[in-house]
Amino acid sequence: MSKTVLILPGDGIGPEIVAEAKKVLDAVNHQENLGIEYSHGKLGGASIDEYGVPLSDETLALARESDAILLGAVGGPKWDELDSAIRPEKGLLKIRSELELFANLRPAILYPQLADASTLKPEVVSGLDILIVRELTGGIYFGQPRGIRTLENGERQGYNTYVYAEHEIERIGRNAFEMARKRNKKVCSVDKANVLEATVLWREVMDRLSAEYPDVELSHMYVDNAAMQLVRAPKQFDVLVTGNMFGDILSDAAAMLTGSIGMLPSASLDKNGCGMYEPCHGSAPDIAGQGIANPLATILSVAMMLRYSLDMPAAAEQIETAVSKVLDQGLRTPDIYTDGMKKVSTSEMGDAVVAAL
Ligand code: NAI
Ligand code: MG
Question: Is the ipTM here above 0.95?
Answer without folding.
Answer: yes
